[in-house]
Amino acid sequence: MREIIFSVCMTAIALSLFKMLLPETALKKQMAFLISCFFLSALLSFFTYYRADLAKGLSPEAFALEEIAFRDFEQELFNAQSRAIEREAVRAAEFAIAAKLAQADIFAQNIFVSINISDEHSISISEVRLVFHNLDELETLAQAMQITQKEVGERVLVTGVIMEESL
Q1: Which of 136, 143, 137 minimizes the C-alpha distance to 104?
Q2: Entry pTM
Q3: What angle do CA 78, 79, 82 make, to 5 degrees?
Q4: Closest CA to 127 of 153, 107, 101
Q5: Residues 151 and 125 placed together within one structural domain of the fold
Q6: pLDDT tens-digit profile, the chain (167 residues)
Q7: Residue 23 lies in domain
Q8: Are residues 49 and 99 in the same domain?
């Protein structure tokens, strides 16, 4: 408490000396006003930062650091990085599958890839879904599923869907 009052008094003395050192110019009133505003803001920040109670005085609880919430951003940062890596991996896998199918002149309407990222930072594809919109493309769908299965491996589930367009 004594240190706080001492620092407030020292701030007031320093600002008073600075105010006396101002030259006699047209800006003296504005500079004096700015110095006063600085002092008032220093006092205001003291009472808001340290949560001082003017009616009851300062208590040791007003300065308790245990009440300040600590937020750990490490897990949030890790999750954001994982989501960004997952989006990039999905996009790259979809592009690679579309390019491989395009070599066989097969063009799926949509390709959906499900990616898993484990805690050991390994990435694996769990499912690939190929979407076509015409029932006439049933043979094309079967051929696309075979090509995709060959590319991604036997452990990955490859499904094909024919969605008829609504009229």
Answers
A1: 143
A2: 0.53
A3: 85
A4: 153
A5: yes
A6: 566 677 777 777 877 777 777 777 777 778 778 878 877 777 776 666 555 555 455 555 555 555 556 667 788 887 888 888 888 989 999 999 999 999 988 888 889 998 887 766 678 888 999 998 876 778 888 889 999 999 888 888 998 888 876 54
A7: 2-67
A8: no
